[in-house]
Amino acid sequence: KQEVTQIPAALSVPEGENLVLNCSFTDSAIYNLQWFRQDPGKGLTSLLLIQSSQREQTSGRLNASLDKSSGRSTLYIAASQPGDSATYLCACTYYSNYQLIWGAGTKLIIKP
Amino acid sequence: GAGVSQSPSNKVTEKGKDVELRCDPISGHTALYWYRQSLGQGLEFLIYFQGNSAPDKSGLPSDRFSAERTGGSVSTLTIQRTQQEDSAVYLCASRAGGGSHEQYFGPGTRLTVT
User: Fold this and answer.
1) To 10 degrees, the CA torsion angle through A22, A26, A32, A34?
2) A50 close to A57: Cβ distance less than 8 angstroms
3) Strand segments (E) across chain B
4) How many CA atoms lie within 13 A of B32 on its CB side?
5) Which of A37, B36, B46, B99 is in Cβ range 3.0-4.6 Å of B59 for a Cys bridge?
6) pLDDT, tens digit, for every residue of B52-96?
């Protein structure tokens, strides 16, 4: 069964710290992996997409890595800001129908 | 350009009533997905449309749920005889198809069944 797990479920850190969010997946035959951000009462914003052939992707202060062999991905946020507070979701796409299999998310709070 | 839009943004309905949720994908996107996010739970896949192919309905939770996509564009998700457990945020996403597999999400419809 294809499952995606995110740890921790919640994280609270002071502003300015670097932090890492973790995502693990049971089936390594992924097509790609995406990290999303979800703000309360709003939709999903795609942050980074890593193809199965890639090891990492970077966008601004965000860096996502992918290790298919170990079934893990990390999202690194540098110099965190209060505006980074949101729920971060990891989702894997598989070849079958390209539907996304979702983790439960990590709720991140950046304290000013 | 315009993103994925959904309507209504909020819907409150009485138990037993039917509801229709609408999704307008990004123009030209061939693939369309519906997902559901229940309170305190993760997102779950409901249904997937790709071009003119038969939709993948494997995620629909019961036969009260159905969806159609007219003209390869707008999609409507219909829930008949709504139950309280149907209360959730319903998200629609579209994908360009071909070599692109990034899904773009709409803002969602928050459904509350009283």
Assistant:
1) -30
2) yes
3) 5-7, 10-13, 19-24, 31-37, 43-50, 65-69, 75-79, 88-95, 104-105, 109-113
4) 32
5) B46
6) 888 999 899 999 999 999 887 999 999 999 999 999 999 999 988
Alpha helices (H) in B58-98, listed in sequence order: none
Site of tokens 């993948």: B56
A99 Cα to chain B: minimum distance (Å): 7
Cα nearest neighbour of A37 on chain B = B105
CB atoms within 10 A of CB A111: 12
Higher per-residue confidence, A28 vs A61 = A61
pLDDT value of position B24: 96
Token code pair at residue B8: 């209504």
- For residue B76, give every residue at least 6 positions away whose Cβ sits within 8 Å of its Cβ, in sequence order, or none: B20, B21, B22, B23, B67, B68, B69, B70
Paired with A49 in beta bridges are A34
pLDDT tens track for A53-99? 999 999 999 999 999 999 999 999 999 999 999 999 999 988 766 77
CB B12 within 8 A of CB B114: yes
CA–CA distance, A46 with A33 (Å, rounded to integer): 11
Of B33, B95, B106, the CB nearest to A43: B106
- Which of A31, A41, A43 is the closest to B101 by Cβ? A31
Of B33, B105, B106, the CB nearest to A99: B33
